[in-house]
Amino acid sequence: MNLMLFFNGWGMDESIFKNFPPVDNLNVIVISYPYEIPKLDFETYNHIYIVGWSFGVYYASKFLKTKQLKSYTAIAINGTPEIIGTNGITEKIFNLTLNNLDLENLYKFYSNMEVPNNFIAPNININILKNSLQELKDDYHLLDNPFQIAIIGVRDKIIPASRQVKYFTSKHVHIKSIECGHYPFEILNDWNKLIKDN
Question: What pTM does this model have?
Answer without folding.
Answer: 0.94
